[in-house]
Amino acid sequence: MRIVILSGAGLSAESGLGTFRDVGGLWQKYDLEEVATPEGFARKPGLVHQFYNARRANCATASPNDAHRALADLQQSGMAEVTLVTQNIDDLLERAGARDVIHMHGQVMRALCADCGHRWDAPAIMQPHDPCPACLAPATRPDIVWFGEIPYHMDAIGAALARADLFVAIGTSGAVYPAAGFVQEARHHGARTLELNLEPSDTARLFDETRLGPATRIVPDWVREMLNQR
Ligand code: APR
Questions:
Q1: Is 19 in the pocket of ligand 1 (CB under 6 A)?
Q2: Residue of minimum CA distance from atom 34 in ligand 1
Q3: Fewer CB near the last or first residue (10 Å), C or N of the chain?
Q4: Whose CA is nearest to atom 23 of ligand 1?
Q5: Same structural domain, 219 and 159
Q6: Residues catalogued as catalytic
Q7: 47 and 133 together in one domain
Q8: Ligand 1 atom 26 nearest Cα
Q9: 219 alpha carbon – ligand 1 mean position (Å)
Q10: What is the dihedral of CA 38, 42, 48, 53, to 10 degrees?
Q11: Would you say 151 and 145 are in contact if contact means Cβ atoms under 8 Å apart?
Q12: Residue 179 to residues 23, 126, 133, 204: CA-CA distances in angstroms?
């Protein structure tokens, strides 16, 4: 069986990393135009680095939760070919033991040189004009896909969706494309679709099945069910 699992901020919410659009979410505290667009970075690079330095610090002090661990267990069980696609920029799935996680919106623990394309492990604190370790240009940025930029690994994601028997969306509002369109792509190729969320997402009607509850409960429950089918 081939399973594609798309995760969003709800997967890491119970690790304390917060979400974007829930009450009290990040986009109620910050103007996303200022901190999550290339134009915002060009205008105020210091503010954007400050925003991601804070996200990076939160990520470093957070721990994977039972939902991250359950997904890593499912992937390692060998009972299915599991492709983990995440919109999250944290590394909690990797720290829970998951492998080959596809970060379509980038990773806050990585840095990118806008001049030469070099990528490296980001320092705890990034600042404007930090020189790129490879070309020395003062053009470093967090390796994050901002609004208006093309998400990473779309070819690999499209190929996985085309072959999926089951598509599962976990903890994502279905508010942002192209991720929000993955359920339709999977259905078009004949996959069954399951949504695991605290409340119905904007695309809930497109799922064959929806289970509601906190990820740390409903994701391990679902993984246990899958493993019992072996
Ligand atoms: N368990 C499960 N789901 C949860 C939990 C929880 N404990 N807490 C919140 N959720 C769900 C909410 O119901 C919602 O559907 O997580 C989702 C959070 O939605 P968003 O804040 O919109 O996060 P996400 O869907 O990941 O956003 C997508 O938008 O801002 C961009 O790049 C950013 O990757 C992000 C993208």
A1: yes
A2: 87
A3: C
A4: 9
A5: yes
A6: 105
A7: yes
A8: 8
A9: 15
A10: 100
A11: yes
A12: 22, 28, 32, 14
User: pTM to 2 decimals?
Assistant: 0.97
Instruction: Dump pLDDT digits (tens) for 10-33.
Output: 999 999 998 999 999 999 999 999
Distance (Å, whole) CA 34 – CA 36:
6
100 lies in the same domain as 191: yes
Number of structural domains in the chain = 2
What CATH number has the domain bearing residue 124? Answer: 3.30.1600.10
CB-based contacts of 190: which residues, under 8 Å, 6+ apart? none
113 and 218, same domain (yes or no): no
Residues 156 and 87 in one domain: yes
Q: How far apart are CA 25 and CA 30, in angstroms?
A: 9
For residue 86 and ligand 1, the question of a CB distance below 6 A is answered with no
For residues 53 and 155, state if they share a domain: no
Residues spanned by the domain of 40? 18-61+108-144
Distance 139 CA to ligand 1 centre (A): 30
Ligand 1 pocket, mutate which of 102, 198, 202, 207 (most atoms under 8 A from CB):
198
The tens digit of pLDDT for each residue in 149-173 reads 999 999 999 999 999 999 999 999 9
